[in-house]
């Protein structure tokens, strides 16, 4: 059990270190890095490569941005297998709905608890 926590910390940390290096050493904007990570997760998920990362890192691999892309890819593939081409459009939405809903809900709760301000 402790090994799972350590693996999640290491895998999630490596993903974050890669993102930080890209921010520090390239002229890529954070938005482009975000999109690149999600797209990379989709591609690696569709090729069943990210499955190995998830097997090792568990939540350390599924919570960061490539994990979101992985979830989209797996849900779309599953939905295409069940419903055909229309599943390519509905699968990702169904697969990611829980995570997106949680992010919106918790973000709203934090905005109620704390005093959000815009940057000047």
UniProtKB/TrEMBL annotation:
The chain crosses the membrane at residues 6-23, 30-50, 95-114. The keyword Membrane applies. Keywords: Membrane, Transmembrane, Transmembrane helix. InterPro entries: Spore_V_AE, SpoVA. Pfam families: SpoVAC_SpoVAEB. Signal peptide: none annotated. It comes from the Bacteria. NCBIfam families: spore_V_AE. PANTHER family: STAGE V SPORULATION PROTEIN AC-RELATED, STAGE V SPORULATION PROTEIN AEB. This is Stage V sporulation protein AE. It comes from Clostridium malenominatum. The gene is spoVAE_1.
